[in-house]
């Protein structure tokens, strides 16, 4: 065999060896990857099993503890309502017509008798014609009476008539003069609503009937107004109130009205004046209930004491807090520590913490509650601990 053939055989053998080595390496890599994947799957399976096992094991629940202490328990109720003046008057006209002048605006203070507005009378044609006819007739009678008096005076001077006849004629003339004036005044009232002799008492000038603050003036110049009489309320010219004397008006539920009494103190808070409260005294409880959203409620009124430095407007919404029951220096626990079953009330009394928290179920008798803490009349003693809510 020649040297060339030997070299070719050697190259072929080397190529086969290299090919075999690559094939073996590839097989080893595939086998290693398969083993690695199987190990990962096994670890995931094992981890999932351990996790589920741990989750299935019961855990010790730990509770907050509340100490039995002595305190004052005050049960209160809150009535909703609004603030309004005790004296609020609607000013109405005593004559019908059209507003010709408005002298005051809402927010201004007025004194009793001060003019708020002026009404211009619009006469009714039938009354106007009747009044004018009365004036003409009175003037005719007056002229005839003056003529008769002048004739009687001449006869009386000549002693041709008696004194009695002269005095009768003079009286008739005076009556005719009064009738003329009365007829003219009546015509003036129908046309203007006022006479020159009674200008200060004119019903066309609408005056305030009390001292106070004008809350509202619902009319404007040109509005028609109707007088107040037995058949209608009339048009409101203005609303005037004494804002120095305010009351709270609200409602109390029938389940609580029996626990309050006239004269008790009341704490007033206003939505418009936050972080401020005012003292008041309950002065009225309605003897009759009113239905409100399906519940029977009783109206109450309380007189408010307001400092001069504070301005309260009529209609402010307000809450009135009143005391219903009180228990001083009594054992108390948080109301959240109570549990109920049937007619029984019980707590879980803390007994031991050596191997986890231990509790003993105890029946208790409760009293006054303020919604957060409750009086314990029996079943516990001071400095005991009871189970509260679970710790997070």
Describe this structure in words.
It is a single chain. Helix 2 packs antiparallel against helix 3. The chain has 392 residues and is an alpha+beta fold. It is elongated. The chain has 4 domains: 1-57; 64-74 and 328-390, conserved putative lor/sdh protein from methanococcus maripaludis s2 fold; 78-85 and 241-326, Elongation Factor Tu (Ef-tu), domain 3, CATH 2.40.30; 91-235, no CATH class. 31% of the residues lie in helices and 38% in strands. The strands form 5 sheets. Strands 2-11-14-13-12-15 form a 6-stranded antiparallel β-barrel. Strands 3-10-8-5 form a 4-stranded antiparallel beta sheet, with no helix packed on it. It is built from 4 helices and 21 strands.
Name its key features.
single chain; 392 residues; alpha+beta; conserved putative lor/sdh protein from methanococcus maripaludis s2 fold; Elongation Factor Tu (Ef-tu), domain 3; 4 domains; 6-stranded antiparallel β-barrel; 4-stranded antiparallel sheet
Question: Which secondary structure elements does this structure contain, and how are they paired or packed?
Answer:
Elements: H1 3-56, E1 63-67, E2 69-85, E3 88-91, E4 97-102, E5 109-110, E6 115-120, H2 125-157, H3 163-192, E7 205-207, E8 212-216, E9 224-225, E10 238-241, E11 246-253, H4 254-257, E12 265-270, E13 277-292, E14 295-304, E15 317-334, E16 339-341, E17 344-352, E18 358-363, E19 365-369, E20 373-378, E21 385-390
Antiparallel strand pairs: 1-21, 2-11, 2-15, 3-10, 4-6, 4-9, 5-8, 6-7, 8-10, 11-14, 12-13, 12-15, 13-14, 15-20, 16-17, 17-18, 19-20
């Amino acid at each position: 065999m020649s040297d060339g053939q030997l070299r070719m055989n050697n190259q072929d053998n080397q190529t086969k060896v290299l090919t075999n080595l690559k094939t073996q390496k590839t097989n080893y890599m595939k086998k290693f990857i398969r083993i690695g994947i199987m190990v990962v799957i096994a670890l995931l399976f094992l981890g999932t099993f351990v996790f589920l096992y741990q989750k299935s094991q019961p855990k010790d629940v730990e509770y907050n503890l509340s100490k039995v202490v002595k305190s004052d328990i005050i049960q209160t109720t809150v009535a909703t309502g609004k603030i309004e003046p005790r004296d609020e008057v609607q000013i109405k006209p005593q004559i019908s017509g059209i507003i010709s002048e408005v002298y005051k605006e809402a927010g201004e203070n007025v004194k009793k008798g001060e003019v708020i507005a002026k009404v211009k009378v619009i006469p009714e044609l039938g009354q106007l014609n009747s009044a004018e006819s009365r004036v003409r007739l009175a003037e005719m009678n007056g002229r005839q009476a003056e003529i008769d008096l002048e004739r009687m005076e001449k006869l009386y001077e000549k002693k041709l008539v008696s004194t009695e006849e002269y005095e009768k004629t003079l009286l008739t003339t005076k009556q005719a003069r009064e009738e003329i004036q009365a007829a003219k005044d009546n015509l003036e009232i129908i046309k203007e609503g006022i006479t020159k002799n009674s200008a200060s008492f004119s019903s066309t000038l609408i005056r305030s009937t009390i001292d106070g603050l004008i809350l509202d003036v619902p009319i404007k110049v040109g509005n028609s107004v109707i007088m107040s009489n037995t058949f209608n309320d009339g048009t409101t010219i203005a609303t005037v109130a004494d804002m120095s004397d305010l009351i709270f008006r609200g409602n109390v539920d029938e389940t609580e009205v029996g626990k309050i009494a006239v004269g008790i103190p009341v704490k007033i808070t206003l939505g418009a004046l936050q972080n401020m409260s005012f003292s008041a005294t309950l002065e009225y409880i309605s003897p009759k209930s009113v239905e409100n959203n399906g519940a029977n409620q009783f109206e109450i009124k309380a007189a408010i004491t307001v400092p001069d430095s504070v301005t309260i407007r009529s209609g402010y919404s307000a809450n009135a807090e009143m005391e219903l029951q009180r228990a001083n220096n009594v054992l108390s626990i948080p109301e959240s520590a109570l549990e109920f079953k049937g007619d029984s009330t019980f707590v879980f009394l803390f007994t031991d913490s050596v191997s986890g928290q231990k509790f003993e179920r105890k029946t208790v008798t409760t009293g006054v509650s303020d919604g957060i803490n409750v009086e314990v009349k029996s079943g516990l003693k001071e400095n005991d601990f009871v189970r509260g809510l679970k710790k997070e």
